[in-house]
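Quick one, probably user error.
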């Protein structure tokens, strides 16, 4: 039962009515029941046991941490390590064991061994395993450092871990910042509910009107990239960048809007990422909660560790204070981006396309920033001029698209072959001779897609100045209703859904 389906809308409608009809002290328990029911209705079945095992491990681990004496530092570290290993072990077994096996097989075959040394395994993966695992691990680490208190009610901890909208594609939560609102009573508030529904409608528009259409073109080219070389690959890759954004951010709009209607405020995951002027800035605007989690629980602990403290001191002696610190930071960033890539999936295309390639980009940006600044000064170019910023935005978008190509391709080999095909054939005429209309979208569908993207661009521009829903709320009542009804009917009339059509799963749902 996908969250864009008719059945989910029925499920949510019943949930919303009952949620505000029952006594408020029972609301959190009802949400837990609905979360379990959603897992079962989504075809998870017995897989729901995995998140409950993770919740149980974290509950026991934090209870032991709370009971341990502060002086027993070694025992507390052991408890923390064991709790982390249980959760990471489950995640590894479900998502990464085949990645490990395939990597070993590939290395063995490279040195003359058999094609298949170790047989792979086939596990069914529960919904949102990476999202709930990281949210729970953050809670355990915060309890260890005294930033959060042990949750004495295991069912409340289960609601935090299994909250069903979060299982689709996140966002990744911090217990100390977001958990209490799950358990607090919430009165019905008309404005809050309507604002939540408005955001859900915008999410449905992104997913069903834009992302699904772009997916048709992308699937055509990426499914037969040898038959569509040159400019076809560039067009499809740009379309995929927008497909990925509208798919993922559309899902976030639905999840955050749904939660808002229940009185639960979840963290934002996007902030107009395609206006970023550098790859580092792009990642501060894209999948924000993953970036925050990685910095708080991977990057900063690495920099504070004895290994990197010693490395920092050693490099300062050899390369100077400034360079030594920079190189040590780059080394920690390598582990950070390797972890980001692995988080996205058990395949080297994710490790490269969402991880190490972006590490390389950011390192190059850091190293090349001083000479470019001197060049701009000599050419008397304003560092914040609109022309230069426009070039930076386009450059960043291009670099991100290369990463997205690896992300979307079937394998690293296919990605490299596509890059060769993209630069090896010169056929810009397809942009105006009608060839693009043979990729699955006819003239009308193409016009709808372009106009929808222009609307997305206009809303994103407005969003940089003030929240669009706030801006709309200041308009006269007839205009407000007209705008929201136009959005609703755009989804109804233009969206890809209905009998005989099954909207694709959200791209990040597999993570």
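Nope, works fine. Designed sequence:
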């Amino acid at each position: 039962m996908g969250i864009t389906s008719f059945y989910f809308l029925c499920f949510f409608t019943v949930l919303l009515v009952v949620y505000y009809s029952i006594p408020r002290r029972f609301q959190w328990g009802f949400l837990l029941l609905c979360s379990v029911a959603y897992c079962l209705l989504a075809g998870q079945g017995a897989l729901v046991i995995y998140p409950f095992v993770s919740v149980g491990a974290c509950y026991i681990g934090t209870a032991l941490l709370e009971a341990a004496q502060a002086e027993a530092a070694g025992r507390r570290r052991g408890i923390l390590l064991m709790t982390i290993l249980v959760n990471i072990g489950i995640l590894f077994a479900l998502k990464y064991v085949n990645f490990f096996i395939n990597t070993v097989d590939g290395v063995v075959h490279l040195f003359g061994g058999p094609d298949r040394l170790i047989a792979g395994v086939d596990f069914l993966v529960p919904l949102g395993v990476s999202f709930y695992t990281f949210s729970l691990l953050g809670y355990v680490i915060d309890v260890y450092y005294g930033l959060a208190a042990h949750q004495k009610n295991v069912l409340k901890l289960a609601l935090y871990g299994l909250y069903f909208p979060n299982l689709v594609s996140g966002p990744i939560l911090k217990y100390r910042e977001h958990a209490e609102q799950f358990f607090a009573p919430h009165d019905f508030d008309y404005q809050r509910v309507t604002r939540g529904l408005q955001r859900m409608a915008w999410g449905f528009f992104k997913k069903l009107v834009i992302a699904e259409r772009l997916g048709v073109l992308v699937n055509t080219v990426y499914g037969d990239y040898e038959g569509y070389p040159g400019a076809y690959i560039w067009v499809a890759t740009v379309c995929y960048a927008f497909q990925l954004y509208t798919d993922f951010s559309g899902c976030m709009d639905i999840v955050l809007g749904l939660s808002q209607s229940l009185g639960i405020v979840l963290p934002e995951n996007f902030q107009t990422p395609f206006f970023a002027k550098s790859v580092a800035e792009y990642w501060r605007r894209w999948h924000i909660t993953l970036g925050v989690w990685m910095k708080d629980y991977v990057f900063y602990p690495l920099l504070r560790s004895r290994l990197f403290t010693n490395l920092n001191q050693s490099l300062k002696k050899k390369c100077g204070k400034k360079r030594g610190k920079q190189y040590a930071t780059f080394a920690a960033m390598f582990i950070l981006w390797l972890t980001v890539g692995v988080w996205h999936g058990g395949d080297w295309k994710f490790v490269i396309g969402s991880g190490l390639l972006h590490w390389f980009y950011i390192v190059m940006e850091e190293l090349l920033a001083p000479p470019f600044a001197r060049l701009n000064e000599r050419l008397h170019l304003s560092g914040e001029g609109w022309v230069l910023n426009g070039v930076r935005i386009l450059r960043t978008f291009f670099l991100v698209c290369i990463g997205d190509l690896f992300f979307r391709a079937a394998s690293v080999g296919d990605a490299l072959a596509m890059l060769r095909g993209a630069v090896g054939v010169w056929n810009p005429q397809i942009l105006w001779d009608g060839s693009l209309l043979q990729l699955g979208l006819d003239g009308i569908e193409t016009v709808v897609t372009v106009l929808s993207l222009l609307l997305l661009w206009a809303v994103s521009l407005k969003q940089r100045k003030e929240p669009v829903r706030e801006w709309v709320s200041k308009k006269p009542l007839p205009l407000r209703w007209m705008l929201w009804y136009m959005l609703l009917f755009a989804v109804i009339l233009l969206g890809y859904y209905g009998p005989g059509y099954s909207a694709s799963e959200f791209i990040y749902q597999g993570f």
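The mean pLDDT is 89.
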